[in-house]
């Protein structure tokens, strides 16, 4: 069975529990307040044949680029997020992309999945879960 192609541009339409998630990452309150005001856009390029994927998270404040191959561990520089690095692996669980980020913070990672024209993102760290929903640009 072929995997879904995540390629496209997505605009955030919903966000839940982000302040608690950022606090668990030791982000200071001033920066958390700024982040909570942002409405990121995700630009995803995905080659299902090779597993190559690039996720660009773009805001008016900071941008974050994640470039990887599904199923291959890599060292991820989370400097723009919280100043840490970790060993990261993104793999398929059914039609969902599941990321495990091994480093200073226990239970860190995320899951992406598609439902119609919406891209869902669940972010996890130390038992805290935040969610964002993005709508695909027409």
Word description of this protein:
12% of the residues lie in helices and 54% in strands. By secondary structure, the protein is mainly β. The protein has a ten-stranded antiparallel sheet with strand order 4-3-2-1-10-9-8-7-6-5. Helix 1 runs antiparallel to helix 2. The longest helix has 9 residues, at 29-37. The protein starts with 7 loop residues before the first strand and ends with a strand. The relative contact order is 0.22. The model has no long low-confidence stretch (mean pLDDT 93).
| Main sheet characteristics | 10 strands, antiparallel
Indicate the multimeric state. single chain
Secondary-structure element string: EHHEEEEEEEEE
Based on Cα principal axes, name the global outline. globular
Q: For the CA atoms, what is the radius of gyration? A: 14 Å
Instruction: Please report the total strand number as a whole number.
Output: 10
Could you estimate the helical fraction of the residues in percent?
A: 10-25%
Contiguous runs where pLDDT drops below 50 for at least 5 residues: none
Distance between the termini: 27 Å
Which strand order spans the largest sheet, edge to edge or round the barrel? 4-3-2-1-10-9-8-7-6-5
By DSSP (H or I, 4+ residues per run), the number of helices equals: 2
The computed structural class is mainly beta
Give the helix/strand layout.
Elements: E1 8-16, H1 18-24, H2 29-37, E2 41-47, E3 52-58, E4 64-69, E5 74-78, E6 84-93, E7 96-102, E8 109-115, E9 118-125, E10 128-136
Helix pairs in contact: 1-2
């Amino acid at each position: 069975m072929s995997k879904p192609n995540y390629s496209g541009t997505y605009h955030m339409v919903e966000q839940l529990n982000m302040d608690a998630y950022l606090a668990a990452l030791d982000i200071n309150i001033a920066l958390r307040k700024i982040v909570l005001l942002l409405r990121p856009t995700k630009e995803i390029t995905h080659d299902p044949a090779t597993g190559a994927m690039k996720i660009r998270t773009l805001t008016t404040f900071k941008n974050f680029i994640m470039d990887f191959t599904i199923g291959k561990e890599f060292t991820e520089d989370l400097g723009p997020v919280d100043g840490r690095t970790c060993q990261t692996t993104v793999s398929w669980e059914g039609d969902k992309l599941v990321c495990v980020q091994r480093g200073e913070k226990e239970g860190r990672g995320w899951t992406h999945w598609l439902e119609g024209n919406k891209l869902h993102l669940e972010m996890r760290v130390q038992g805290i879960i935040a969610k964002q929903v993005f709508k695909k640009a027409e």
